TrEMBL record:
Domain of life assignment: Bacteria
UniProt entry tagged with the keyword Transmembrane: no
Keyword Signal: yes
Single GO cellular component term: outer membrane-bounded periplasmic space
Protein name: C4-dicarboxylate ABC transporter substrate-binding protein
Lineage start: Bacteria, Bacillati, Bacillota, Bacilli, Bacillales
Bilayer-spanning residue ranges: none
Length: 332
């Protein structure tokens, strides 16, 4: 099915000779691909983006959304966005790390002190400039971000009290060098893989653990196999909406403005939805899936990743962004 859809998108790209899946008359239709199911809050926020774009452009700019990883893993859809086979994708900033190193900063453990601080920083125009517009040479630009919550460790059955308990635990991480280094620093055994493979890998025993926000337990069903969730709060990695740079440059100033406004407004609408849904996810995981949530002392986890955090001070690829975020934290 996925191959079939990929073929359709490729054929459309060849036929139109450009980005738009359809650009008949005054209407331009773009493809947006992402990897979450249609009951996931991020999908609903992307539907807001679709609706707002339609409204602002008076029906001239339309989006066709392929959810559920139908068009491929995050890595695959980023590649498709680079070649304009799809125009938009929403991916984790961690997945962008191997395309543009500046994004590795978001996988730095304990970069932010609180969710409030993270949201404030992500809204700063200087931060947006420092990340979003630096990837033109890679074929895409960032348009907005969507909160993807706080990432925590969860295991099938192992108990975690300190990072020492991570020893020998096969832990899934996103395909990101920094995330691999983080699990190594904690003493675990990192296993990078695409999100779509995690459920089966947990079930088959290839993995003992993974790390993510609460909705991974419910919307992605990991709570059926992973029964313990620990509030290590080791990362807040935003989802980024990226767009093919040629498709963007082909838009008029007014059209670009509609895209930016619709995206930004959908990002704002996303936050209360996200908060509500994470609380709901915890309730469902506890009551219906038998997952136990553990508040733990994070200090040993924070201590263990200190050398990795410190390495960012010297990292030229992320220096500008690092200094900006640290400066903002000091100003608080
Ligand atoms: C989050 C994020 C996804 C990402 C996933 C992962 O759920 O929103 O974009 O794919 O984490 O861990 O891979």
């Amino acid at each position: 099915m996925r191959i079939f859809l990929l073929c359709i998108v490729s054929v459309l790209t060849l036929l139109t000779g450009c980005a738009q899946a359809d650009s008949s008359g005054d209407t331009k239709e773009f493809v947006l691909a992402h990897n979450q199911p249609t009951n996931h809050p991020i999908h609903e926020s992307l539907l807001d983006f679709q609706r707002l774009l339609d409204e602002k452009s008076d029906g001239k700019l339309k989006l066709k959304i392929y959810a559920n990883g139908q068009l491929g893993s995050e890595r695959e859809v980023i590649e498709m966005t680079q070649t304009n086979a799809v125009q938009f994708t929403k991916v984790s900033a961690s997945a962008l790390e191997s395309f543009s190193e500046s994004y590795s900063l978001f996988s730095m453990p304990y970069l932010f002190d609180s969710q409030e601080q993270y949201r404030d920083v992500m809204k700063m125009p200087e931060i947006q400039d420092a990340f979003y517009n630096k990837t033109e040479d890679n074929g895409f630009i960032g348009i907005t971000y969507y909160d993807a919550g706080v990432r925590n460790m969860y295991t099938k059955d192992r108990m975690l009290e300190t990072n020492e308990d991570m020893h020998g635990i096969k832990t899934r991480v996103q395909p990101s060098k920094t995330s691999v280094q983080m699990i190594e620093a904690l003493g675990g055994t990192p296993t990078p893989m695409g999100f779509g493979e995690v459920y089966t890998a947990l079930q088959s025993g290839l993995l003992d653990a993974a790390e993510n926000n609460e909705s991974a337990l419910t919307d992605n069903k990991h709570g059926e196999v992973a029964k313990h969730y620990f509030y290590t709060e080791h990362a807040m990695v935003p989802d980024i909406l990226i767009m093919n740079v040629e498709a963007y440059n082909q838009l008029s100033d007014e059209e670009q403005q509609w895209v930016r406004e619709a995206a930004e407004e959908s990002s704002v609408l996303h936050e209360p939805r996200w908060d509500e849904r994470m609380l709901e996810a915890r309730e469902i995981a506890e009551d219906e899936m038998g997952v136990t949530f553990h508040e733990i002392d994070k200090s040993s986890f924070m201590e263990a990743v200190k050398p990795l955090q410190d390495s960012f001070q010297e990292n030229e690829a992320t220096k500008e962004q690092y200094d900006l975020i640290m400066g903002e934290k000091e100003n608080e």
